[in-house]
Amino acid sequence: PILVVTCVQQERKVNHHVSTSILCDAN
Questions:
Q1: How far apart are CA 15 and CA 24, in angstroms?
Q2: Bridge partners (DSSP) listed for residue 17
Q3: CA nearest 3: which of 25, 19, 26, 23?
Q4: Which of 14, 17, 3 is nearest to 25 (CA)?
Q5: This protein's superkingdom (predicted)?
Q6: What are the tens digits of pLDDT across the range 9-22?
Q7: 8 Å CB contact between 27 and 7
Q8: Rounded CA gap, 26 and 1, in Å?
């Protein structure tokens, strides 16, 4: 089987701080 991983990068600004989180979903 072929594993496909989709990654979505979300960037948030909280209290003048930049929070970057990467969400990876394996389909």
A1: 26
A2: 14
A3: 26
A4: 3
A5: Eukaryota
A6: 888 888 888 888 88
A7: no
A8: 12
Range list of β-strands (E), 1-27: 5-14, 17-26
Angle among Cα 23, 24, 27 to the nearest 5 degrees reads 140
What angle is formed at CA 18 by the lines to CA 17 and CA 20, rounded to 5 degrees?
A: 145
The answer on pLDDT for 27 being more than 70 is no
**Phi, psi of 26, deg, nearest 5:** -95, 120
Structure tokens at 5: 């991983």
Nearest Cα residue to 23 out of 3, 1, 11: 11
